[in-house]
Amino acid sequence: MTSIRKLLATNVRKRRKSLGYTLDKLAELAGLSWGTVQAIESAKVWAGDGTVKALAGALQCSEADLFFDPNRQVTVKEALERLRVATESDENQPQE
Questions:
Q1: In the 3-class helix/strand/coil scheme, how is the chain assigned residue by residue?
Q2: CA 90, CA 34: separation in Å to the nearest integer?
Q3: pLDDT tens digits, one per residue of 2-58
Q4: Is the residue at 73 inside a domain?
Q5: Looking at the 3D structure of the chain, how many domains does it have?
Q6: Residue 95 pLDDT more than 60?
Q7: How far is 36 from 74, CA to CA, in rounded Å?
Q8: How remote is the C-alpha of 52 from its chain's centroid?
Q9: Structural domain of residue 46, as residue ranges?
Q10: Quick check: 30 and 58 in contact, CB under 8 A?
């Protein structure tokens, strides 16, 4: 199963490239640093609610679109559970 962090990374990267944006351009539009966007696209960090909202706005899509898995249709309940588990595991990891 694809982790939700990898799913977010893949969807952000695909959407950014489909719009012809560079990492710099997406970072500028979303009000984020280049490093943050690069780390999200590399699935190295989890994006919090505000970051996901900023990315969705900059990428002209919904927040839900950033978590869409084209290989597996999931119910809203399943998606929320996956998000809860991912968030809890990230909260338990030491911050750098």
A1: CCCHHHHHHHHHHHHHHHCCCCHHHHHHHHCCCHHHHHHHHCCCCCCCHHHHHHHHHHCCCCCHHHHCCCCCCCCHHHHHHHHHHHHHHHHCCCCC
A2: 21
A3: 588 999 999 999 999 999 999 999 999 999 999 999 999 999 998 999 999 999 999
A4: yes
A5: 1
A6: no
A7: 28
A8: 6
A9: 4-91
A10: yes
